[in-house]
């Protein structure tokens, strides 16, 4: 268990390297594999691997859902740097500790509960959108409500707009907290106007339906109203949980803690009730729950829907955003973990194969010659059967979602005019077999937030800059302006960056992209 973190990191690194390699060489689709196999006299076996996995249960039909009791909302605080997110979290933590937990010194377990009039709210303890999206990257949506902090003495800024896009993309409900109202000479109405004009976020005060509460995090004023507003919104959203169901939690972060005697995983329970002694599968590890620790450090016998907790008992470290799901037995847990590990290994093997074939493909020499002379390719040859088997598996999954693909776009331009022009062309565009959806429009260089926003749906970041020269040369200038670290991150998450300052060139690139997708290139 000690080396789990390192091993995990190694396999991620491997995947990353493989992806980088794969991009350098030509992609190769299923048909190509078949042709090459025939050429080389290889047999491709078509198998359907048996799926042994557990997933969070889907939401039941409304009649059943309505019988469940209300659950507390799970809230993330987002907003521009220095607008007061940390101050607000600190203020809430120290003034509104949930009933029954009063007097306790809060522990850092990634989230905490706040109470008001017998009801509670769970706040994730990491402000900003990075933690939020890193969870979404793994398909996890744990946040019901985003509190968008906007400082009235500063107004709507780039990260305010990014946060709005992140919240919207995740389907979370937004509540605006207009912070720093204690600063004299500021005008909340101006900020409300900015939210409306720059993000089409219309707050209740000006006739919209987004709740907005003026607060001072520093002086701790009006925090009750903010919590009341969150509770009211939770009621409107009809958030319910089924305490009788198998537990389904989500890991916020996990680490090896020798002092605690093993892996400690900070989680928020989404569904069901988790008890000490239950068996859980968590990412590619599992365990029997040894202890459940509350955010005030107390030992809990069980945790219900929306409750944050630290979990002890997992065999290995897992990543933030991974599901922690209760299963009926240790043998079931082991079976699921073995299946998931095999799936990852096979995916890596498939990558290797694609790279090897891509290399052979790109090279001038004949494929046969390369395959017989390059030992690494011989190795890859043996993996073809495997690769094909996994293709079949992926195809089976794909069949369910046949039809038009949606291209999720993040648009970046250097000027407001450029951004507007891009938005105008790109929103809801119909391409052959695909449709576009703009998830964010921003002004300025491509940044980390753009990549994570696009990453959730393996989307596209469009880097449009009127300053760069036109044609292929201009595209190159734009591409070079993006740091290697950002490019690596894009690769890792399957995000495509398209650089151009000519709209029709971008359209061509989008069409090529769709073509590649449809022929199974990636
Ligand atoms: P974060 O980057 O969004 O987490 O912002 P911080 O919580 O670190 O706050 C940035 C600065 O704003 C700090 O100096 C805070 O003391 C100050 N600040 C936060 N809330 C308020 C407030 O309500 N009023 C005033 N006047 N200052 C505040």
From TrEMBL:
Domain Tr-type G positions: 70-238
Signal peptide: none
Keyword Membrane attributed: no
Keywords assigned by UniProt, alphabetized: GTP-binding, Initiation factor, Nucleotide-binding, Protein biosynthesis
The organism's place on the tree of life at top rank: Eukaryota
Single GO MF annotation: GTP binding
Gene Ontology cellular component list: cytoplasm
The keyword GTP-binding belongs to this UniProt entry's keyword annotation: yes
Family: Belongs to the TRAFAC class translation factor GTPase superfamily. Classic translation factor GTPase family. IF-2 subfamily.
Functional description taken from the UniProt entry: One of the essential components for the initiation of protein synthesis. Protects formylmethionyl-tRNA from spontaneous hydrolysis and promotes its binding to the 30S ribosomal subunits. Also involved in the hydrolysis of GTP during the formation of the 70S ribosomal complex.
Protein name: Translation initiation factor IF-2
Included stretch of the parent chain: 163 to 684 of 796
